Amino acid sequence: MAFPTETVYGLGADALNEKAVARIYEAKGRPTNHPLIVHISAIDKLDMWAKDIPEYAIKLARNFWPGPMTLVLPKTDLAKDFITGEQDNIGVRVPAHSVALSLLKEFEVQGGFGIAAPSANRFGKVSPTSVDDVKVELTDYLKSDDLILDGGQSFVGLESTIIDCTKITPVILRPGAVTSAMIKDLLGIQVEGILEDNPDFIRVPGLLESHYSPTAKVYLSGNPSAGDGFIALSKHLTPDGVIRLISPVTNEDYARTLYQGLRLADSKKLSKVFVVAPTGDDIAVAICDRLKKAAYKG
Ligand code: TXA
Ligand code: MG
User: Closest by alpha carbon to 151, among 28, 35, 32, 7?
Assistant: First the structure.
């Protein structure tokens, strides 16, 4: 079943049902050693999935859940290898979306423990932020009775911040709307970003391969020609003859609409998109991370 969250749409299955989870990997075309995030309805369900939870992780959860943040913690026995990619830790998140929360609560009432869900796109492609996007990605790979819940346009538009909480201090594995400055404000400690050459982190998306990529080639430098696509904040004028895909006013707008812009390039069958990346230490960090990974590496 696909369902909305505030970040992007997820493709969900009962996190305890091996067959159902196997169908997620199949529909996405995703290698099975890439672990899945388990979604729960509230912080009080966290200790079913995670143990040895450090104080700072509890603070993070109390502050930013429900919200666009995934905590990676040592797993309990409930979390099986088919969820964790045989790692001994687990990613858990409480999403801030009324449809997702209703779904999770109802699932728990019926005896469920959590819903495992990656973004509802084919492996390596752009995450969906609306029901139409999910259909473009997965119609050919879902069964006719698989549900797609409609929760409108995802409000954040980029995947959650993933924070490794298995060490003495938190490490950001994937930047998102919960920024390192917000974490530092809360905890009073400097958080580390991921070291891209650290082999421990190969399972974080997009570090070793191209990810978040549309069919159109994405360029972060150079000049567009007539007929190419263009993505930039509204303060940047559109060069003559170039096709403006989005024109966000703020970095938050940029995050919310970036994937729509990349998808629009593909639906218009453009071969190249030129992007002016935003700057700043807010959600711009996450936007730049995704753009770097989406960029054409030819
Ligand atoms: O916003 C989000 O996080 C969305 C919505 C649906 O919740 N989900 C999402 O899932 O982006 P996914 O699977 O597309 O990306 C999560 C990435 C995975 O590619 C995996 O590499 C990494 O998070 N991940 C998951 N569990 C992990 C773990 N235990 N340790 C390290 N990385 C993990
Ligand atoms: Mg994904």
Answer: 7
Distance 291 CA to ligand 2 centre (A): 14
For the stretch 199-232, pLDDT in tens is 444 444 444 456 788 999 999 999 999 999 999 9
Model confidence pLDDT, tens digit, residues 163-184:
999 999 999 999 999 999 999 9
The pTM for the full model equals 0.95
Atom of ligand 1 nearest to the CA of 12: 6
Calculate how far, in angstroms, residue 191's C-alpha sits from the geometric centre of ligand 1: 19
Quick one: which ligand is closest to 137's CA? 2
